[in-house]
Amino acid sequence: MEPITQKTNVNNPLPTVSPKQRKRKNLFTSYGFVAPAIILLFVFLILPAILALYFSFTNYYLLTPEQTKFVAFENYKRLAEDSLFLKSLGNTAIFVVIVVPVQTLVALALALLVNQKLMGIKFFRMAFFAPVVTSMVIVSILWTFIYNPDNGLANSILNIVGLGPFQFLTDKDQAMYSIIFMSIWQGAGYQMMIFLAGLQDIPDHQYEAASIDGANAWQKLIHITIPGIRNILAFIAIVTMIAATKLFIQPFVMTQGGPLDSTKTLVYMVYETGFKFRDVGYSSAIAILFFVIVLIISILQRRFIKENTE
Amino acid sequence: MKKNRIIAQIGLYVVLILLAILFLFPLVWMVVSSFKTEPEIFADLKSFRAFVPYTFSLDNYTGVFERIPFIRYLLTSTLYVSVIVLLGLFVNSLAAYAFARMQFKGRDLLFSAVVALIIIPFESILLPLYLIIDEFDWLNTYQALIIPFIANAFNIFMFRQFFLNLPKELEESARMDGASTLRIFFQIVIPLSKPVFITVALLTFITHWGDFMWPLIATTDDSVRPLQVGMQFFFHQPPVKYGHVMAALTMATIPLLIIFVFFQKYYVQGIASAGMKN
Question: What ranges does the record give for the region Disordered, renumbered to this chain (chain A) (predicted)?
Fold first, then answer.
């Protein structure tokens, strides 16, 4: 392709500027356009990323920075033996493994429901989307009240159907599941909207043709709807997965990682070891490991979507 | 046959209504409780009255204003998020325009590098970023909340995609008339690109409005503390009063609600397009 800049040089209405000068000026403009973004990205994203990697190979302790030295893989070895870290990794995995499929399916079901042509369907779309409009910190605070074992709505409501009472956030075996339920409640509406956009892109005539062939609703779902939103489905599953590995706000606000570390997560540990215990080296090792996990998920995503579209 | 359809429709409505109750009951309880006294809230917990607004006392709201600088939190959040949005729109669209339309050495390599940055999760650079900000002496300032978040690799990517699809003719004829690139960008490209600017602005606003971890670390002073962090501290600040917290949460929900009501169309489109383009 012929660059635009050269074309304009030929038609340059200002004869006093030579093509060479003009070209130089253009180069200057181009770099001027990208420079602010690139400089900011370098200082506040690339540089910290490099530092995180570097710190993860040192014993940098915030209160004694002068004693910092290179320790090779010491921090990573420590991780493998740190039961709290392994527990956090496990907790994060539980959250991801449950939230990703359940939330994706709930969102898809909601999208199918609100994709019907019914009176008042807009109200229901808004209702399912409402928790998304409230921020995570706010719903976390709200649900801490709801989950209160003695004075909470959750036990009152479950009591009507003869369940409970539950301890919810104060029980080590229930806390993570309570957080999982709330997280799905908060986030499903967001994915529902993406699914809905995808569903509305499927042409009506495909369904009509299937009806003429005598297909029932289930067959239409399997043979038209699901293939039609396949890429969106894959995309949502992966984005939800990455978001789920970042779990932090809910345990921080609702349980402070407890009880008995049952809701401590990877990102929670990055925060705690770094800012509470000031162990920069160790915290950085967890951060790098977390980055690697996200990277692996992203690479799998690309593979998966590529295979699907080919 | 027709009877079956009516039954199916009724069934559908029953499911929808039950789900709507599930999704809305916490929010209804929040708003309704914010107007009740503490004993009323607790007495109502075991009955349907928890969702019935039978009193409208504003005591909880005045209580919030007495205990925390709520308005200050709200203004801080609004201010810092708006500045991120505005500066971000400018810086990122400018870079994206260069990547989409200009020829310069290393362009494609540079752009690939920017796209690769999208993958880096913020949580993994938190601590070094904190140390850098500390080095700049920016802790507890608005700069700390704003400057690291102006440039955004994903937004550059979104803008570039949009600019690539714009017809070139207008820009070329303006260039022949001797207009500078910057002028072309402001007077021709930006007006043609309103949809992408609105989408990016909304997504950026919503993302940063929900920011929690960074402001939690970078601010320790009430004067620069944003709403989300303020809410968290208020929640854990004794005496914990349900009514006060509910009033604060209700007020904190209003700004996003307003944005949602006014920009609903763009909001949903933005979510959908962010979904598709990946």
Answer: 1-20
- For B236, the closest chain A residue by CA position comes to A253
The CA distance from B254 to A297, in Å, is 36
pTM for this model (two decimals): 0.90
Whether residues A189 and B50 touch (CB distance < 8 A) is answered with: no
CATH tag for A74-309 (out of 3.80.30.20, 1.20.120.140, 1.10.10.10, 1.10.3720.10): 1.10.3720.10
Assess B4–A contact: CB distance below 8 Å, yes or no: no
CB proximity A284 to B under 8 Å: yes
Helices in B34-50 by DSSP H: which ranges?
Answer: 38-44
Q: Where are the domains of chain A?
A: 4-55, 74-309
In whole angstroms, give the CA distance from residue B199 to residue A116: 27
Q: Are residues B132 and B266 in the same domain?
A: yes
Residue A9 is predicted with a pLDDT of: 45
CB B74 within 8 A of CB B162: no
Distance, in Å, from the CA atom of B252 to the CA atom of B62, rounded to the nearest integer, reads 15
Residue B164 domain flag = yes
A142 neighbourhood in chain B, CB within 8 Å: 26-27, 30, 249
User: Where are the alpha helices (H) located in chain A, listed in sequence order?
Assistant: 4-10, 19-41, 47-55, 74-81, 83-114, 121-133, 136-146, 153-160, 175-200, 204-212, 217-220, 226-228, 230-245, 249-254, 266-271, 280-309
Q: Which residues of A touch B115 (CB under 8 A)?
A: none
ipTM score for this prediction: 0.92
How near does any CA of chain A get to the CA of B192, in Å?
19
CATH assignment of the domain containing B113: 1.10.3720.10
Tokens representing B113 are: 């590098």
pLDDT digits (tens, 9 = 90+) for B175-226: 888 888 889 999 999 999 998 999 899 889 988 999 999 999 999 888 899 9
Looking at the fold, whether B49 and B106 belong to one and the same domain comes out as no
Treating both helix axes as pointing N-terminal to C-terminal, what angle do B70-101 and A19-41 enclose, rounded to 10 degrees?
A: 140
CA-based nearest residue in chain B for residue A196:
B272
